[in-house]
Amino acid sequence: MTIQFETIGIVHSPYKEKFGVPRQPGLVPQAHGSLELLPPYNRAETVIGLEGYSHIWIQFLFDRNPHGEWQPTVRPPRLGGNRRVGVFASRSPFRPNPIGLSVVKLERVALERGGVTLEISGIDLVDGTPVLDIKPYLAYVDSIPEARSGYAESAPVADLEVRFSPLAERQLQQRQGGGALKVLIEGVLASDPRPAYRRSEQHGRVYGVRLHDFDLRWRLDEHGVEVVELASPAR
Amino acid sequence: MTIQFETIGIVHSPYKEKFGVPRQPGLVPQAHGSLELLPPYNRAETVIGLEGYSHIWIQFLFDRNPHGEWQPTVRPPRLGGNRRVGVFASRSPFRPNPIGLSVVKLERVALERGGVTLEISGIDLVDGTPVLDIKPYLAYVDSIPEARSGYAESAPVADLEVRFSPLAERQLQQRQGGGALKVLIEGVLASDPRPAYRRSEQHGRVYGVRLHDFDLRWRLDEHGVEVVELASPAR
Lengths: 235, 235
Description:
The structure is a homodimer.
Chain A: E1 2-6, E2 9-12, E3 32-37, E4 55-61, E5 73-74, E6 85-86, E7 99-112, E8 115-121, E9 130-136, H1 139-142, E10 162-164, H2 166-173, H3 178-189, E11 206-211, E12 214-221, E13 224-231
Parallel strand pairs in A: 10-13
Antiparallel strand pairs in A: 2-3, 2-9, 3-8, 4-7, 4-9, 5-6, 7-8, 11-12, 12-13
């Protein structure tokens, strides 16, 4: 059986590429974004009562993967990238049906200019992610604090110290919302966003992460992470 | 954009029709069933490590709805069926993309006869439900006990007393697993499975619910529910 689905909305996010996106929702609460409903779903009626919920489920499409490329096993970053687990025992984006599932905080339901936008935070979604469904989070069914969670019992460690170069500090000060942006950058970098296969690379190498409209350039040293600069993105 | 998905598995459940199915997973923990992976997904590799998880997410297709029949608002049974909320503020099966989301308990991963079957419980899925994806439940991200949940802050009341007629008692005793079946029946009926628009019907009317291979016949009276008999299903 083959089933056809349509995109009901689209995510607007500070994360412009997969690199740097938190591996699960909620890990970087400072990550604010929005979910814009698309016609014909962008009618105020479709979200009546949603403001009573503090959290929502987003079912979305992992559209940055070449379709049809699933493998029976994957190597989760949590296991250092060298142990294989079954694709159905992972939340990997490379799945038979590339449907993602994220719970995010619902900050506000905005009905403006005849459209519907949900302001959300704690997101782990790339900018432009197509949305298939939105559901309210029901604590009495969805929350199972005592659930046993295999190799992922607790949140990944995010304890790297994040420092800013004098240049990066100046660049932040010149921006509107620079304070919030600084907190977001700290959240993104404190967990070392590098994929497992790059974690053995030497200190000093400068990495770039597309965030908002800039290229966040940073490096690791013996003390933690240093943000080098907020560069103009290379096109 | 239109997206194509394939069925990766199928649910085997005691619930043979929508009527009688609990409105959320976990409400009737006694409801045992299984999820059978279909080729080419039914390979032991796809579930390596899954046995370390106590719960899993099932993303499935609401296939008992005529497709394309969504409405911007729905009338949830929790609100007595006479108040409308937005479709995205509900877990109604009538949605733009009819994708369901259920967390169930994973009892056992069975690798037998070259296939893969997941034994599950606490299910709210109709027999034959097509499955799109399976994901491990990650308590540290998915469990938000303090989440505010609109009109559905707590589990629906399920406090009807369930009695069995002498005939029904005899029929249960003659069955293998009659004890477990009795507990399942009590779980299903204690919450009054009738849709909201039938709740005003008079006492005494006999209802039928297809469960396993029989037609469970029951009625309401001033004391609660009486199970009349386990009848052969009318074909």
